[in-house]
Amino acid sequence: MKKLIRRILLLIFIFAAAFGSFVVYQQYTQKTQQTDSYETMQSGTLAAVRLKYLTDNSNTLRGYTQKMDVSTMRGCITPLSQEHKLSIQIDQAENVGQVSYEVRGLDGTRLVEDGVISGWETDGSTMKTQLQLSNLVDDGNEYQFVLCVSQKEKPVYYYSRIIYLTDEHTESLVGFAHDFWQASIDKNSDFVVNYIQPNETMGTDDFSYVNQHSRSGMITWNGLLVEAGTVETTLTELSDSQASITLTYPVTISNGTDSKTCMVNENYVVRFRSDVLYLLDFERHVKEQFSVAAPVYAKGALQLGITDEEVSKMASDDENIQAYVYDGQLFASNEKDNSLSLIYTYQDGAEDKSFLDGYKLQPIRVENSGDIYFMAYGYHSRGNHEGQVGVSFLHYKCETACIDEIFYIPVTFSEEILMKNMGTLAYVNNESDLMYLLYQSTVYSIDLSSGEKAQLAKASSAGSFYSNKSSSLIAWEEGDEGYAGMIRIADLSTGETYRIDAGEGEFVQIQGFLGNDLVYGTGRKSDVLTQAGQVVHKPMYELAILSFDEDMTQSGAYQMDGYYIEGTQILENQLNIYRLTKNNASGSYEEAADDQMFFNNRSDKKVTSLTKSKIADDFQKVWSISIPLDTEKVQTNGTLCKIRDAAASYQLNLDDGDQGHLYYVYAKGRLQQIDSVLADAIDTAYDQMGVVVDDRASYVWTRGTRALSKNLTFEEQQAKNAEDGLRACLEILISAEGGNASLVEALLNEKTAVEDIMTQAIEAENTKDTSKSVSGRAENLRGSSVTQILYYINENHLVLAVTGDSSALLLTGYDTKNVSVYDPVTSETTTMAIADAQEYFEAYDCAFFAWIK
Predict the structure, then answer these.
(1) What is the C-alpha to C-alpha distance for residues 232 and 54, in angstroms, rounded to an integer?
(2) Which tops the pLDDT comparison, 578 or 407?
(3) Do 324 and 330 meet the contact criterion of CB atoms below 8 Å apart?
(4) Angstrom distance (rounded) from CA 419 to CA 437
């Protein structure tokens, strides 16, 4: 499937919602100058909590000074002992008072139990206890555990999922990860080679990233001397037979002459089956210690060392000032002064890497004067916002080397979701003193000198907005939902606006920005192919590329006779075009060979990633960035700038509103993706050995935990003919889910979409008889593979396969090689090889549907 992923902007630039109460920036500055002073950001003060399992350094939790939305706080998962006990340790507990807890359902709405914890053992500044939980925690079900620790008479909250497993192999699963880690440190290749699958996808010249497909020599550090520090263990997913485990530790590697100090993050997925342990996935990220306070220069470059993290950069208009973000640090070079200065970081000392993966820094504008507007968003581990999740909008003043916080917005969902949802549309036009921000489906402009706001643009949804990397250009669609009749473009650097109109019976569709050029397509509504009320293909017949140097001009186009365009992928200086051909007899479409367009100088030079590498003896590939400075004479300032935080009145609480159904992909110990299309989320989770949860915190798909075989029983329903197949299959599925199958035929006659039929028929029965406890929702799984949808059969849900406007089949079972398919026309269940079934359903442009509880 060709995926055209549209970013889900849950809070797309939440700043704008505050504009109605935004106070004049100049007045704010004057006020704070009179009442506040600049201070160095204070170090972290919150107690550290661990939920110990097997090791003393396991499942370390972050502290939050505000109550969080429990349903978003996945974090780690902690297994209870067979006696329902939980081992808790609190460090830095000098100011700790009462400690209480809650056990809740995953969505946070149901309280299972709560209480105050007593009987602590104290040893200096450390508190320990074994918390006895009740037997209300069911075997195999996950719950949210919330620990409330009073610190200086203020509550601080810590979150973890917990699970009780009567038949579990957790100790073996976690033990295997530690055994593999130890083998890599000890250079025990005989152990390692039993669990890896080396191939040509992984090289032998870069320690910064290795995985299960690397050669054993790279995993065992290729002859380097290795000295590892304390290993932190975090369980992120756990069932009775499978676990996802993250190991984090510092390491010093040496070739006998030189040495490097690095932080290492390893992710494991381990399965226990038939008394055998399997390593399903492994990867290791290595990052050499870096600090602007102790930089290493060489031949016009700043050395980063071993790393797989790219550096982001934004330049001033005259390119004298370059702002960089790397390893949680914002720093800037000044070519005229030949200086490099640290601007902002939460890192507290060169070796402190605690919680640095919980926030991001993003430059918004760099001025010729050296001033920098930027955002800091995520989890704040120190400073006045310590323990909060939120967005801070900041202004670094070069003349005084100090920072003003203009405003701060706390949120109550996880930092992972906040960081994933933040995009790039935040722009300051210094000449006009205007700030442009997007919230939900509206773009606002705000006059920083007067506090006045105006609505610049409003679209049907936030996903309709696109911007270039510097956010100086934005574009959005207007018109009927799904068939835009107009595209509008705004150049925020000049204030100019433009529009593109679709022709009669046509629609326009934005593809995105190629550097500073807009790519959009045009299609005919008559070419759109639907099936059972669902859009199957929405092809375009041409692409256009627009430039905006002084005016809007067309600088490129793509159209080829006999071919349609399904979508595009925009890369730097390259446009990949996904094409279709049409069968005029049947009206169906088939995938055709992709095409490409190549361009020169289409990248946005203001925002770029600029890493280059070289091979260093023994340490393999090391990285550096070119900087426009005389590195032999550069003046370095590694002192953190003092900051003046926004007053309490500039902390703004926002209502996030209804965001619709969203799906969250967790894999490799972190949130990987947020999607509005379940099939896209499943694709990512499948590739990364992960899980998908919905906005209710319920699992909707996991990889690797289904049984080897499954066959569902159901009440058969005879179809009159092939064109009656959809009706019969829907009635079978809805009856199996406890719904009212008698509603199906009338809803089909009204041309109701399949998802809506399932929803109305099942929810109607739930309303009529609440004792049935029917809950869940219909899901369109178009684009998912047969292998992927077997998960739902394993969860006891029939899967509907729509093969035409009125024809359908049911997937009812599987084994390791085959899938069982029920045909309502013949009332027979046949088996098909999974690969054959995949080919068969693809030929029909099939859409799968399931009811997910």
Answers:
(1) 12
(2) 578
(3) yes
(4) 17
- Structural element, H or E, at residue 532: none
CA–CA distance from 188 to each of 180, 184, 216, 233, 287 (Å)? 9, 6, 9, 21, 23
Rounded Cα distance between 242 and 171, Å, is 11
Query: What is the separation of C-alpha 243 from the centre of its chain, rounded to a whole number of angstroms?
Result: 21
Smallest CA-to-CA distance from 558 within 514, 589, 527 is with 514
Q: Determine the angle formed by the axes of helices 786-794 and 834-843, rounding to 10 degrees.
A: 110
| Single-letter code of the amino acid located at 509 | Q
User: Are residues 25 and 451 in contact, defined by beta-carbon separation less than 8 angstroms?
Assistant: yes
For residues 279-295, one letter each, b for 16 or more C-beta atoms within 10 angstroms of the residue's C-beta and e for the rest, the string is bebbbbbbbbbbbbbeb
Bridge partner residues of 154 (DSSP): 151
Query: What tokens were used for 621?
Result: 């590939």
Residue 356, SS3 per DSSP: helix
> Which residue type occupies 279?
L
Tokens, residue 356: 């640095």
Check pLDDT > 70 for residue 453: no
Reading the block at residue 347, the tokens are 């890192």
Instruction: Please tell me the distance from the alpha carbon of residue 788 to that of residue 778, in angstroms, as a whole number.
Output: 17
Q: Which residues pair with 847 in a beta bridge?
A: 802
Measuring CA to CA, which residue among 261, 184, 257, 200 is closest to residue 229?
261
Tokens of 711: 């066959």
Q: At a CB cut-off of 8 Å and minimum separation 6, what does 140 contact?
A: 163, 164, 165, 239, 240
pLDDT score, position 457: 77
Q: What is the percent of the chain with per-residue pLDDT over 70, rounded to a whole number?
A: 87
pLDDT-derived band at 618, boundaries 50, 70, 90 = confident
Give Cβ neighbours of residue 232 (< 8 Å, ≥ 6 apart).
Answer: 57, 58, 60, 247, 248, 249
Helix, coil or strand: residue 120: coil
Cross-strand pairs, 476: 465, 488
Q: What angle do CA 814, 815, 819 make, to 5 degrees?
A: 35
Residue in 493, 487, 483, 505 with CA at minimum distance from that of residue 546: 487
**Strand spans (E) along 572-685:** 574-582, 589-591, 595-598, 607-609, 612-616, 620-626, 635-637, 642-644, 663-667, 670-675
Using alpha carbons, select from 479, 502, 499, 503 the residue that is nearest to residue 488. 499
Asked if residues 315 and 303 have their Cβ atoms less than 8 Å apart, the reply is no
- The answer to whether 798 and 731 are in contact (CB under 8 A) is no
Could you read off the pLDDT of 604-615 as tens digits, one per residue?
A: 544 444 456 676
The H-assigned helical ranges of 306-362 are none
The arrangement of strands across the sheet holding 663-667 comes to 670-675, 663-667, 691-694, 699-702
Burial grade of 376 (CB within 10 A; 0-12, 13-18, 19 or more):
buried
Query: Cβ of 853: how many Cβ atoms within 10 Å?
Result: 13
- Selection from 398, 386, 439 nearest residue 154 by Cα: 386
Q: Which residue has the tokens 């949860």?
A: 693
**Nearest-5° angle of CA 358, CA 360, CA 364?**
165
User: What angle is formed at CA 770 by the lines to CA 769 and CA 771, rounded to 5 degrees?
Assistant: 90
Name which of 788, 801, 796, 785 is nearest 846 in CA terms: 801
For the segment 438-451, what is each residue's pLDDT rounded down to a tens digit?
654 567 676 655 54
Q: Which band of pLDDT confidence, cut at 50, 70 and 90, is reported for residue 469?
A: confident
740-762 in b/e form (b: 16+ CB < 10 A) is bbebbeebbeeebebbebbbbbb
